[in-house]
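Hey, I'm writing a tutorial for new members on how sequence and structure tokens pair up, and I'd like a real worked example in the thread rather than a made-up one. If someone can provide the structure for the chain below, I'll link this post from the tutorial.
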Amino acid sequence: MADTSDFRNGLIIKFKHDLFTITEFQHVKPGKGGAFVRTTLKSLRTGRVLDNTFRSGESVDIVRVERRKYQYLFKEAVGFVVMDNETYEQITIPEELLGDQQKFMKEGIELEVLLDDKDTMISVEIPIFVQLRVVDTEPGFRGDTATNAMKPAKLETGATINVPLFVDIDEVLKVDTRTGQYVERVKN
């Protein structure tokens, strides 16, 4: 058992029957009363953010986790098949672990899988930025950028995002997977 003095950003703890990562913490020692630690926790399963205060010295359950890199191969009916980059072992990731991220998954990208000490998958993270080709969009107009207007564009993974008017079919775009927004065109 560890206590609040072991807190650091990125530490994973078991709290309220769920796994949380500490994204922020602050040790507070008021003039009156006992010291405490104010934390911001993010659930690894649901992604919800929770603010919580622990008494200084309170014991917590620290969870040991391992991060492994996997390469996405293809989609099956039961999930996504990925390959371990070191052992070449293939496993299937259930769709619910990826959530909305799956619409930006292209074959060959590298995923980071978080595993607990029993080799159970806790969460899966895809790269923050991916490069995807536009397969369908309305014709673009050069120079029409004064209004910052956007139009929908369908990407090679099937996802639809809003892009500036000058983007055409077969252009490669850099997309932010956290927000699902266009970042920039990629130069070949």
